[in-house]
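The record is given unchanged here:
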Amino acid sequence: MSFPPTPLPNARVYLRRLQPHDAPTFAAYRADPAVARYQSWDTYTLAQATEFVATYGPADIPGPPGTWRQLAIALCVTDGLIGDCALHLIADEPRIAEIGITLSPAYQGQGYAREALRSLLGYCFTELQLHRVYAITDALNLPAARLLESAGMRREGHFRQHVWFKGGWGDEFLYAVLREEWQQVQGSGKLV
């Protein structure tokens, strides 16, 4: 299982390991209130980012089942960090993974997140030979829902008042795609 995955044809971004020089950028976009709104944190400091990158940057990708790993989303032209993807092989069934994405506001709405997710899904199904990949998003985060759909995932569930989140009960959407579905779309020549 090689990492990082080969960038997609005509890619503007690629996935790589987090590196020490990424910490200031990582902290900056994660500290943005618009980014933190639907995440588990409210603020993010440079010290937290530096510790996170030092701990998880050199870690194995994917991690052992049951652990999360963050993958840097970098611009192909500059290698500059613009966001990160999360990958979590499920402990009880490591042929299934949960994924997530966080992108700097400066790069949102330009198709970068879609490219990164397509690359991550390709890695999951081609290199890791996973059976199923899913993502969960806050039901109020409609841009994330549109992103997951545009990357080829389908909404499988709407969990009402499913999570206690930042002081209140929140709804969540479940999105997923199977390897056979991913392969069919890739084989058809259609871009998802």
